[in-house]
Design goal:
The protein is mainly β. The chain contains no helices and twelve strands. A four-stranded antiparallel sheet has the order 1-2-3-4, with no helix packed on it. The protein has a four-stranded antiparallel sheet with strand order 5-6-7-8, with no helix packed on it. The chain has a four-stranded antiparallel sheet with strand order 9-10-11-12, with no helix packed on it.
Length: 157
């Protein structure tokens, strides 16, 4: 018979489903986002072969669905993508809003950070993808021509 480790129950907002989760590259921070526009932050503690999520912060990030949350490679920021047609960049130290990335005309479904955490690419139902310079909060390139919604994205740099 196989032994199965105990799984920690995970329901940050009761019956509201979790839409997206992300873990920092160093394995110390975990975030989850849901359809109410909230993001939840946990520190990951380890004891032997098991890990535990320790809740420490709730962030009211958007007024509509969060479709994606993603921690930056340097774990200093988290991006949230939403049905409100924006992506937002938050500090993981102060949890202050640093930038609202506006320009998409429909839902922003997905995002990906550059390896140095300086750029973000977003995917939207408006049939486009955008590359953002996060220091300025501006689109530096827009990728048009898709005949359908762009709902997932990857960045290789």
């Amino acid at each position: 018979q196989l032994a199965c480790p105990k799984v920690q129950d995970f329901a940050p907002d009761g019956d509201t489903g979790v839409r997206s989760v992300t873990v920092s590259y160093d394995g110390r921070l975990f975030a989850a986002a849901n359809n109410t526009g909230s993001a939840y932050f946990y520190k990951i503690s380890r004891a032997g072969d098991s890990s535990r999520l320790n809740f420490f912060r709730k962030l009211e990030a958007h007024k509509k669905y969060i479709l994606k949350c993603l921690l930056s490679p340097d774990a200093k920021h988290i991006a949230t993508c939403s049905a409100d047609c924006t992506a937002k960049i938050w500090s993981t130290e102060s949890f202050a809003l640093e930038k609202t990335l506006s320009g998409h005309q429909r839902w922003v479904w997905d995002c990906a950070f550059s390896a140095d955490s300086a750029y973000l690419v977003t995917a939207s139902s408006d049939h486009s993808a955008r590359l953002w310079d996060l220091s300025r909060g501006e689109t530096i390139r827009q990728y048009n021509g898709h005949s359908k919604a762009v709902v997932t994205i990857a960045l290789s740099d």
